[in-house]
């Protein structure tokens, strides 16, 4: 896999369809954690632990497991109600095993017609565990993609690795198996092409900066402070998008943002962004499909 280093001033203006200026993609990460892991290492994949005292994965960690499960039992439904009230879509990522164990959540997303991006099989089984074994990595990816197909009823078009932990082999494996876009690389605010031996992948950025884990658990922000950051990010990108299209990525987790005292930040940000008629609430697949057809007008590699 290779991709070019081309600074913004050497790119042509990116002109989104229908005179839209800024793509806003709010990601709901629909993740699943096993209750136990056969390991002596701590099992905190998917963000910081709510109680930081590490214990081996083979020992039941009730507070950390049940804190995450709150997002499945309660938090996601509060977030869905919030999006529904404002009338905007989310772009969801899906651990395949959640589709097997928490099918009601997947059904709710499918009913709304929202995007589901493949997000590994189970949140704690990171691809980096297989960097030296490309066959094992491909086996895990195919397990996730095949289960996705069974649960969702169609093939996945995009991929976000658990904890964004992919390997140098991941893009090649994904392109080989029909994936058209990858979200692991957070090095831009516009899409670009990654070249693989199996054809191009569109890189569509995710963000750990504009992310509820960073806001609330890494930096200790209040609900009001998080809302201010979201608006600041939007305002600057919207201003810059007068000359070239940009993407604003927001990463959310139901067990973090789904609590009552945090939902206001999400609600008021969605209301704010939705008040702009030239914001494009595009799926990642829409962006990838469009960019594959129009990338030459943006970056000539």
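-> sequence recovered:
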């Amino acid at each position: 896999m290779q991709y070019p280093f081309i600074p913004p001033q050497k790119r042509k203006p990116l002109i989104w369809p229908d005179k839209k200026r800024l793509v806003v993609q709010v990601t709901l990460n629909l993740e699943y954690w096993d209750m136990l892991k056969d390991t002596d290492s701590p099992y905190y994949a998917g963000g910081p632990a709510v109680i930081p005292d590490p214990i081996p994965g083979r020992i039941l960690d009730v507070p950390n497991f049940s804190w995450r499960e709150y997002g499945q039992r309660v938090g996601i439904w509060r977030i869905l109600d919030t999006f529904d009230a404002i009338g905007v879509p989310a772009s969801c990522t899906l651990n395949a095993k959640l589709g097997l164990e928490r099918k009601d959540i997947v059904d709710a997303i499918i009913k709304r017609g929202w995007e589901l991006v493949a997000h590994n099989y189970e949140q704690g089984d990171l691809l980096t565990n297989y960097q030296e074994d490309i066959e094992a990595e491909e086996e895990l990816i195919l397990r996730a993609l095949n289960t996705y197909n069974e649960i969702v009823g169609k093939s996945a078009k995009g991929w976000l690795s658990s904890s964004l932990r992919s390997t140098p082999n991941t893009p090649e494996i994904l392109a080989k198996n029909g994936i058209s876009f990858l979200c692991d690389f957070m090095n831009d605010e516009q899409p670009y092409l990654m070249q693989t031996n199996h054809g191009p992948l569109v890189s569509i950025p995710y963000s750990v900066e504009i992310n509820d884990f960073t806001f609330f658990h890494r930096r200790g922000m209040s609900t009001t402070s998080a809302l201010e950051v979201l608006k600041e990010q939007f305002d600057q990108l919207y201003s810059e998008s007068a000359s070239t299209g940009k993407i604003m990525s927001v990463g959310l987790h139901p067990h973090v943002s789904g609590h009552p005292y945090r939902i206001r930040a999400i609600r008021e940000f969605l209301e704010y962004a939705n008040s702009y008629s030239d914001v494009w609430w595009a799926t990642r697949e829409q962006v990838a499909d469009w960019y594959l057809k129009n990338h030459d007008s943006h970056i000539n590699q």
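The first strand starts at residue 22 and ends at 30.
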